[in-house]
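Read as chain and fold; for instance:
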Amino acid sequence: MKKIILLLVIFSMSIFSENLDQMPSKKALDKFIEVMKSGNFEKYSNDKQANAMFNISGMSKDEIKEMNKYKKIIGNNYKYKVTDVKETENNSEITMDVEYETVDYKGEQFQNIMRESNLKEEPLNEKTVDKIMGKYTDFIIVKKTIKVNMTKENNYWLLDLNENEDFMISLYLRGELYFFHI
């Protein structure tokens, strides 16, 4: 009897996880991450969902070329697994486990790099951060559960980047440093 119950539980869990993959908002989130990971906005210029999220068709060729430079946005070690999707007609809340690298701000290496950097002479902007990141190697792994909220507009699922700070921090290569939280 215990074996039958265990088999039923395992079977229902596999059906549930397969159903998550069929949820339209989850598919849109996967597309968002896929586009960001590739860094190749031109490749997705004919994809309607990607276009709705990034307005690729509204970008000039120079803007697309500039966006393609930022493949660094998601680190190579970024991992995620969607564990729950609560989707209504126009709103979705996606729960996911994420694992990503971030800077150990209290670590000795970071402190030394910051002392060596001329932040008094150079403003803290993306170029300065890239210079710091080029020297930094002592990353820590963050594992956490986050929620991503999406809304549906004109039949496409969209992310409000301002409403999903935990998600955006997890996406950016090495986490929070690109949000200038130094």
